[in-house]
Design brief:
This protein is 42% helix and 11% strand.
Length: 169
Amino acid sequence: MLSDLPRVSSARAADIVDVGYEGFRSYLKRGLLGRVGMLPGFHRAGANTHDDPAPRSKWMTFGFADLCLMRIAKLLMDRGFTFESANAAVSQHAIWSYMQHDSEPVERYLLIWPPYGDHIVFDTGDLHHLPARMKEAQAQGVITLLNLAEVQQHVANQLMRPEKPEINN
């Protein structure tokens, strides 16, 4: 199962996602992925409650599902989407759940279009709707189509390769 792959440090996660370490930490502090995939906080009745909107900024290790979503966000930002639009697309429980529960990369697509980052995830059983939805989205302008199986495969390959040894000067 893909979720059984090892968890990695922030530095290695930044490498897998393909952003610099400082950029990675900055994205986390800005709330990348929000609270997706996490239980709500537990509070006593009547207590003043506050669940941190950027809890991953304090994490030291990251697993497969988080890395996949971060990689998707990075790919979207590379294609011109704002951090906010990319984050809104990947901070969905359904996408996190797919990544968390798949036992191998699954042919699934994310169709997203500007200006607000409207998006649809096409699971294996929905792929027959993809051409019609692409045509509708293209009528509104430029679209981006990401193959989520490729993202899963990239992250899995990176997690299975040996970590680069640190060079101490």
